[in-house]
Amino acid sequence: MLRNEGKDDATTKADETMVLQNEYFFLLAISISKKNYKDAQTYPYLYAAHYHRDAGREDQSQEYRLVESMRLYSEASRVASQYRYDAKDCLQLMKHMTTVASLIAKDILLLPKEAGGDGKVARTWKSRENAVAFATWLIGFIDSLLLWEENEEKQFVEILGTHHKHSLGKGFQLLPEDIRVTAVDKIYSQEEEHQTRLTAITEEELIYFKHPRSKRLSKGGMLMQALTKKKVVINEMVMAMPCISSGERSTRQRKRFKTD
Predict the structure, then answer these.
(1) Which of 110, 153, 157, 246 has a CA that sits 20 to 30 A from residue 122's CA?
(2) What is the pTM of this model?
(3) Cα(63)–Cα(241) distance, integer angstroms
(4) % of the chain with per-residue pLDDT over 70
């Protein structure tokens, strides 16, 4: 549990890890949301993610913050997919995810050309491990959106469309092939990890996304295979909704009835 021991802009100590005072408040907001609102709020995750995104892109020595930003965006998409909302709320949340995809592409995956001029180029990561961890959380972000559609039994998330300007394929193409291959291996690796106790990613220790829940990101499936190719090509067949058995549909309908 985080303990605020900072003064002014001093640092806060949490689980023997030093974090800035404002980081502490972002983490505290997430903790309160989990405790008091059953982890049903996306905003605490989004605000914290924006903070780390800005800090990471403004200071190259803080590259790990880009990974933490992606982890928090992934947590926001997990929350969005976890609960049933009315049509208006669902549309608003989906638009938030579209905005997030735009920010990930423009502020993290792309950088202005060093030689000046117009246009951007794919980010060159200083640390390979940061890039791998980031890629796992990008997969985690997409996994929850895919699961959201699968639970609702309809395709409605804009950025999952194959022709969207921030589509899945375009985003992953900005990551080197070897990084994507390693990230997929990491997601399904059975190695023991002691990182679950960590509250957040730090400069000293990374956290990786594990165990996708959506059927379209199943191990060895067409989508996972596409993400590891030199050229990422994701067509409508790859993104097609999986078949739902009658038993699964009945179970989901009972859960929805209880929720309503």
Answers:
(1) 157
(2) 0.87
(3) 36
(4) 82
Residues 233-254 have pLDDT tens digits of 999 999 999 987 655 555 555 5
Helices 21-36 and 43-58: crossing angle in degrees, nearest 10, is: 160
| Interatomic CA distance for residues 211 and 189, integer angstroms | 9
Surface-to-core class of residue 235, CB atoms within 10 Å of its CB (0-12 exposed, 13-18 middle, 19+ buried)? exposed
**Structure-token pair, residue 51:** 């903070």
Dig out the tokens for 127 from the structure.
């640390």
Q: Take residue 151 and report the two structure tokens written for it.
A: 């639970």
Structure tokens at 161: 């469309």
Residues 6+ positions from 75 with CB-CB distance below 8 Å:
45
Please say whether the beta carbons of 12 and 3 come within 8 A: yes
Encoding tokens for residue 66? 């880009």
- The single-letter code of the amino acid at 40 is A
d(CA 19, CA 12): 5
